[in-house]
Amino acid sequence: MHTWKQGDEASATRLIEQFQPLLRNVAAKYHSLSYEDAYQEACLALLEAAKRFDETQGTPILWYLQRMVHASVHTAMRRIWTHQRRMVYVQNRDEDTETDSWEELPDESSAVATAQWEDAFVLQHWMKRAKLSPNETLAVSARLKGWSLSDLAAKHGVSSETAKTWNKRAVRKLRQQWERERD
After folding, report:
1. Is the distance from CB of 129 to CB of 175 less than 8 angstroms?
2. In whole angstroms, how far apart are CA 173 and each of 124, 135, 163?
3. What is the pLDDT of residues 96-141, one digit of tens each?
4. How far from 44 is each of 54, 69, 154, CA to CA, in Å?
5. Of the candidates 93, 84, 76, 87, the residue with the CA atom closest to the CA atom of residue 37
6. Where do runs of H (alpha helix) occur along 5-133?
7. Rounded to two decimals, what is the model's pTM?
8. What is the Cα–Cα distance from 173 to 117, expressed in whole angstroms?
């Protein structure tokens, strides 16, 4: 019996070192979400699969470990995606405090709502990749909600010109990111 099946920490570390290429490859597929989270999930999945492996079934261990790591990491990342789709970034600017937070959106099940969730997730991805500032993110979110720039300015206590600047910068950064990814 392999010592990593018995929970030997040193042999578990050697097992992870032995499968570094696989773990890195699997984690790299989820780099846009979180490489570090995906890598940790891959390590945990490898150790769990190694403990569960049964030599008597006739399955090659390499094939088994590879399949289990891929499947486990995909499932974990899908849970994170689902959670992120249900969250919305909220920036509150009160006179006394400035707070940023994530709030869970209400659960909706219609096809239109699902399409809107997917569009929101894609937009969040693009805004993150374009490295929008919090104010530029506010401008994009407000415009998508149908707010005018003067509504945005009034809501956040800034001038209309400032709101226009946030919007212009956001659009420029999103276009630049689009051009970089298209090439």
Report:
1. no
2. 14, 13, 16
3. 555 555 555 444 444 444 445 556 667 777 777 888 888 888 888 8
4. 18, 8, 49
5. 76
6. 9-18, 20-28, 31-52, 61-85, 111-129
7. 0.45
8. 23
